[in-house]
What we know:
Largest sheet: 9 strands, antiparallel
CATH class of the largest domain: Alpha Beta
Strand content: 25-35%
CATH superfamily of the largest domain: Zn peptidases
Number of helices: 11
Helix content: 25-40%
CATH topology of the largest domain: Aminopeptidase
Amino acid sequence: MSNSVFAGLQPAIVWQHFATLCATPRQSKQEGLLRQRLLAWALGRGLEATVDGVGNLLIRKPASPGREGAPGVILQAHLDMVCQKNADSTHDFSRDPIMPERCDGWLQATGTTLGADNGIGVALILAALEDDTLVHGPLEALLTIDEEAGMGGARGLAPVLLKGRLMLNLDTEEWGEFYLGCAGGLDVDVRRADDGEVLPEGWAVRRVALRGLRGGHSGVDIHEERGNAIKLLVGVLHDLAGVLPYRLVALNGGTARNALPREAFATLALPDGEGLEAWLERREAALRELLRGVDEGLTLTAEPAVAERVLDHQAQFVWLASLHAAPHGVRRMSRQVPGVVETSNNLGMVDIGPDGGRCNFMVRSLVDGAATALADEIVSLFALSGTVAEASGQYPGWRPNPDSALLKTCQAVYRREFADDSTVQVIHAGLECGIIGAKYPGLDIVSFGPTIRGAHAPGEAVEIASVGRCWELLRAILGELAQQEGRA
């Protein structure tokens, strides 16, 4: 790690592995290169390592001498990362390394996501496999694929692969908190085919850009009421129709289903284009006022563009009216877990042109039935216009177990090591714990991690000191569990 941003960072055993992850492209569904490198690394260390039928990597490390009777522990994280970048970034996630920077005690990426979600979890697990001074019982490292794009790795996990009865998931983002439950969810994919029309002769074409929003995680940050670029731009187009006649050429926004859209773009054809810029300037000021204290960096601009065709009148009406009416944000707060969102949805991506288009809504809930009900509402909304909308990919939430023996051990170790009390949380985000737990009934699961800010958005950052504390905590928990007798 010398001569790099990682030089001198402690614990070096963790950061060296995160450096490898930053250097290796790992988009969802394209984790093969990273998996192959880690498989070769594990086999080179004499560890048992296999790739299952869907592409998850499983590595086993024997117990420390004399600890063979301790409970088997599964360490779990996912290999893929959310790939988000600013529009002016030339970064190619399929081949370019992530280039982190240090800033005031944080490691962060500029212009792209960092991949600390869930790369730090993976790095902590690899460090535990490497550290020969660590005292532990039998260890299994389960490194899944495709978590960010549909939980494909966890879904495809065979129910007979794992041997351990305890699992530490390392995929949460607030140091000092143990997570004991999470939301489930599903997707609603909307698509429509249309026949465009020739651009009216003599009309001016402008590309309207709404930029500058913070974005973020569509579950963890949904309650902050940050701007959704798609919804805001559709609202702009709705109001513009009453001021200037226009025809829609294209509407695009968002690049990930589980990220709050930061940017959206609409290409318009207008009879002459006069007055558009001045109107947008006034609307930008109104939107900034609407988002005061939350997303004040919003900009709304227009520039000349070219086009040959536009949406037909009916398609334009259906898309804009439906997207304007579609829900987004928090639907309900939990009555069982105060302060936690129960049900929400995110309009995360849209791509519409003269020949048709598609969009995606990601629905989350702590109550599986509530997620289904909200998805059904969205499907019904688009059905009114004969537009195809399908709900799919539902995954279960992780139901909290307040009597978890593993949680009690984790809390006791935290108190002993850090002379402070931890807190217990339920997260409004999709962890793989619910899916894995459903495949392995009785599996005792707890999740924790370092402090990460801005996950799923450019500028994502991880607090360096909290990574060190996570390593200390993981070592101490494994050491404590190694003193216990095995559990049937």
